[in-house]
Write a structure and sequence with these properties.
By secondary structure, this protein is an alpha/beta fold. It has helices spanning about 15-25, 60-70, 90-110, 135-155, 180-190, 205-220, 240-250, 290-300; strands spanning about 5-10, 30-35, 50-55, 75, 115-120, 160-165, 165-170, 190-195, 200, 205, 230-235, 240, 260, 310-315. It has two domains: about 5-170 and about 205-235, NAD(P)-binding Rossmann-like Domain (Rossmann fold, 3-Layer(aba) Sandwich); about 175-200 and about 240-270 and about 285-315. The termini are far apart. It binds NADP nicotinamide-adenine-dinucleotide phosphate.
Length: about 325
């Protein structure tokens, strides 16, 4: 009989997290999810009966109780506030979601003797391919939590893997990212105002991203990890944004109204993605970009959109 596996997932209402939950459930994991008061649970549609949802009240004490109740073999930590740029009002939410909540989580694991953590970082910790140079405050908070993990994995039996994701894509992505915006413009007739588009983009299909999480979990469970390992989740084949948009138009067989150069590059725009990370041993992306885009389009449910002929602004990584 297959071993009974228990997972605890944070960030389960997000794009990657909701897909991870489906994958865990389909692979027979007992799956617990931590949400907060006010989280929109519609991303659990279809699996709500198969998962156990715990609402965190923000306190360390209650998080300790949640971890005790779930008693997971592996915690998959994906919760995060992503902001490409911040304002003074964003400082507290960024620290709260990315550092305080994360630290509360490992403290709760440590108190309960839960030993395996998959943490989620970002390639944006490596501006200009440096060992550490955060693109923005969000990336700096990810690095700060890695430093916290060095403490916990150093003083306890906690072992952790941090997966540094590059860009991810797949069906039904609720985030207002490039493909969603391009898809919308084909239906509304809007023109997308873009930067000059010379930056290289590193896109990994969601199923490949999930493979990295599952492989990482296996590695932890097999006791192969000493303290903390860090891996990249990368296609290894970045593509210029302009070429990406052209390919997308060809695959969906639509002409796309894009005005290149209508916007400036963002401060600290990533022109060349980080390419110095090692991938999880045994992992390689399986879904080529063209196949992934086709699969995404086939499986994306189109929302209702209002038609107009205005212009919409976007940015590749927003
Ligand atoms: N997707 C990418 O291309 C990419 C690239 C690099 C790194 N990453 C990292 O990958 C992870 C998943 O990304 P994603 O794009 O799937 O995220 P997402 O769609 O933006 O979702 C973020 C999730 O984090 C949760 N969250 C935020 N603050 C929280 C808090 N204080 N307490 C509990 N939950 C909280 C949100 O819950 P609510 O529903 O309550 O808001 C939501 O479930 C994140 O750690 C992100 O930084 C993603």
């Amino acid at each position: 009989m297959a071993e009974h596996r228990i997972a605890l997932v944070t960030g389960g209402t997000g794009f990657v997290g909701s897909n991870l939950i489906r994958r865990l459930v389909s692979e027979g994991w007992e799956t617990h999810v931590i949400v907060r008061q006010g989280s929109d649970l519609s991303m659990f549609s279809g699996v709500e009966q198969a998962i156990q949802v715990h609402v965190h009240d923000g306190s360390t004490e209650q998080l300790i109780e949640i971890v005790k109740l779930a008693s997971p073999q592996v915690v998959f930590h994906l919760a995060s506030l992503f902001l490409a740029q911040h304002t003074p009002q964003d400082v507290e939410p960024l620290i709260h979601s990315n550092l305080l909540f994360s630290t509360q989580l490992v403290e709760a694991m440590s108190v309960n003797g839960v030993r395996h953590l998959i943490n989620t970082g970002t390639s944006w910790q490596h501006y200009e391919n440096k060992d550490y140079s955060p693109v923005c405050l969000y990336a700096a908070t990810k690095q700060a939590f890695e430093a916290v993990l060095t403490y916990y994995t150093g003083v306890s039996s906690l072992t952790a893997i941090s997966l540094k994701l590059s860009d991810t894509y797949g069906p039904n992505d609720p985030r207002a990212k490039l493909f969603t915006l391009l898809r919308t413009t084909t239906r509304t007739g809007e023109t997308l105002l873009m930067s000059p588009g010379e930056q290289m983009i590193d896109l990994v299909y969601i199923d490949d991203v999930l493979d990295a999480y599952l492989l990482g979990a296996e590695r932890l469970l097999q006791g192969k990890v000493i303290q903390h390992e860090i891996y990249a989740v990368t296609s290894g084949k970045p593509i210029k944004l302009r070429d990406l948009v052209e390919s997308y138009g060809q695959i969906i067989n639509q002409s796309l109204a894009v005005e290149w150069g209508a916007r400036a590059y963002r401060p600290r725009e990533i022109m060349l993605p980080w390419n110095k990370g090692q991938v999880v041993p045994g992992w390689a992306p399986k879904v080529a970009l063209a196949a992934g885009i086709a699969r995404m389009e086939q499986n994306t449910r189109l929302p209702e959109v209002a038609t107009n002929t205005g212009a919409r602004k976007t940015h590749a990584e927003d």
